[in-house]
Write a structure and sequence with these properties.
By secondary structure, this protein is of the alpha+beta class. It has two domains: about 100 residues, Phosphorylase Kinase, domain 1 (2-Layer Sandwich), CATH 3.30.200; about 270 residues, Aminoglycoside phosphotransferase (APH), C-terminal lobe (Aminoglycoside 3'-phosphotransferase, Chain: A, domain 2). It contains 15 helices and nine strands. Strand 2 and strand 3 form a beta hairpin. The longest helix is centred in the C-terminal third of the chain and has 28 residues. It starts with a helix and ends with a helix.
Length: about 375
Amino acid sequence: MLFDCVVTQFANEQFGPGIQVKMVPLRGGLESPGIMRADVRRQGARVGSFVAKPLLGASTRELHVYQLLERTARQRMAPALLGWHAGQDQEHIFLEWVAGQSRWPWRNFDSLALVIEQLASLHGASAEPVEAALAEWDYEAELRESAYATLEAYNRMSFQRKSPAGRPATAALARITEALPRLRGQLLAFAGTTLLHGDAHPGNVVLTRGNALLLDWSRARIGSALEDVCSWVHSVSFWEPEAKRRHDSLLRRYLLARGLPAALSRDFRDACSLAGASNALSGALHYHLAILEDPKTSRRAKDDSHRAAADWLRLIRRADTCFREGPVRKRGGAKDGCSRQTARSNRARSPRQLASGLHIQGGNSSNRRRSALKSFREPG
């Protein structure tokens, strides 16, 4: 009831008296429940629409991100911030309602690339004005907690012989979870840190007039640019065969948009594996495991989550292989960026050797590696 009053008050301020406001629920993620579209009419004629979103707890940092984008973005990245309301118990933001040009534009490579280029533009911007607000969220601690919850859920399903993977992933998942702080350190050291959207997937993007607008910035934070890039490429590839087929082309498009050489080196692929594992453990894998465990879930939803969980576990195993291999160069054109022959030899190594950590190397010399990292860190 309070939410309706706040929305109606804002609508009256924007459109004047004598209006009627109809609230239409919108699908929000786990971080964004309760989002509404407010359709405003006067004497039966529609005069406008906007989005009303309650900010829950720490997600109030989203307001600071919208304000930053309004002030500093070189191009339009998000719906316009129309206003906000700061109550005693809760804050609300009011955003422009943007209707997409197509319900599913992702069969077209140019549409896929628009999102990649938008992410590159975001990652090239300075995050200094919002660093203090974003620092209030201890993402690394939350990620570790999420990883252990994911491991517990997976172990529970494995014990019941309901593992969604074609082969057991318990050991790989346990190793990655235990080594997560070191893994994260390697990932963040590879390319430095920048402002992230934090939840890049097809449900959070709308295309309009040749531009890609990113929605729902509630998980915006400071992190590795590859977390955004891999989140987008992995999620859209899961649903769209054309995106999966053009996977490497999208990665190259991102590097070019950042003004970097478009070669997908072993270093870069290994870092993408770490970013994929981080995204899996941030809640994505746990979400699908929960759906599989829920007896009330429909068969179709279970089938989709079974495929999605298996896909995330594949990324976990890939990251685990890279982690155990250490500085091993890619051989034989293996797509995963990790040598199967070396992986077999690693099974004979001692546990201490296997826990030595991932070193993202593989260039012809340490000087070349330092040069590549320096260029990647520079804003595009």
